[in-house]
Amino acid sequence: MTTAINRDDIIDIYCDESGTDSGRYLVIGGLWVKRLYHPIILRQLTAFRTKYELTREIKWAKISKGYFNQYKDLLDLYFNCWNRVRFYCIVVEKQKVDWHTYHHNDHELGFYKFYRLLIRYRMSGEYRYYLWADQRNNRVPNRLHTLQCYANMDCTKHIGVSPLVHVQEINSRMSDIMQLSDVLIGAVRACYCEDISGEAKVEFCNYLQSRLGVSSLSEIENKRDALFNIWKWRPKTNMP
Question: How far apart are CA 31 and CA 210, in angstroms?
């Protein structure tokens, strides 16, 4: 008989990515939310939408001068949930990846190996994890379930449990938390690429950095317990 999992012991991971097709950096990341706090965060996001009469999708790409105050308020909402949600991402400088040796020149395979790195090193044995990933058009089917299998194998070896109990692709339009992930990931990649198009996006990144107490997102170190964590991947020492 399967034992029910207490929601206090569940963490939902809402993952997205930026830079898979072009640009210097690939960023994979998302929001880790204890299921216990889900209703609180969703109520705040619903109130945010109601305040601005928003029906469209919230996205990094849509930040503009006319919508800056809305996205600034969204960032404030995130920081008001600071003790209930964590943001983790991995930043990969693509030209430093040995695609041939480690990924058989398969960039899709490499993408999911970096994905696994991020997920694996953020899981512990005390929780069970549900991964909700933004939809992707993959060449090879079942990539996400393969990620689950290998991540659990790694965890079983190191911590004695298989904590990733569910993986599923979802349409980001159906999840406000996923959309918030998109905004934060887009900001991280833009700051690393130093290629921020539009004054509103520059102001948004500056405001994010000021809320975090740094002059640049590149100053943020990979610390396991940090509430806003950026892991700058380095070759050889961090090979997937």
Answer: 20
Q: Is residue 103 part of a domain?
A: yes
Asked if residue 156 is part of any domain, the answer here is: yes
pLDDT for the residue numbered 54: 95
At 47-67, the pLDDT tens digits run 999 999 999 999 999 999 999
Q: Give the domain CATH number at 168.
A: 3.30.420.10
Q: Provide the β-strand partners of residue 127.
A: none
DSSP bridge pairs for 28 = 17, 90
Given this model, what pLDDT does residue 1 score? 46
Model pLDDT for residues 154-171, shown as the tens digit of each residue: 999 999 999 999 999 999
* Among candidate residues 143, 126, 139, 125, the one with its CA nearest the CA of residue 28: 143
Burial letters 143-165, b for 16+ CB under 10 A, else e: bbeebbebbbebbeeeeeebbbe
